[in-house]
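hiii, so i know i said id send this last week but things got crazy w the move. better late than never?? heres the sequnce for the chain we talked about at the cafe, plus the structure i predicted for it. fair warning i was half asleep when i ran it
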Amino acid sequence: MPLWERTHDLKAHRPAFEIKCRFCDSLMMFRYSEVYPEENVILARRNGLNVVEYKCPRCSLIEKFYVEDEREYLQKMLDMRDGRRLYLPPKEEWEAEHEEIKKRLAILGYM
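okay and structure toks below
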């Protein structure tokens, strides 16, 4: 079973496993996806690459994953994004994290 599944939407891939923070064990949140359908010489990949980032809403740990896939699929995802490599999720998906940030700012006296 592959570790990453194709979504055929703007995210391009989703994990076939639960991503939990290694420090606080919280469920991590999708942050962005950045596709590179061409050969990536820097990362020594012959296929295309999707860089996927997740962030812990509790302790702010960031984890990046490099998902290799066929160039044709990643080119389709790039076309769906109107040529933009980077995809950020809509604001609604960030709401849970906003509440946690508000609590932290209040503790520090900013709110």
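btw The radius of gyration is 16 Å. thought thatd interest u
miss u guys!!
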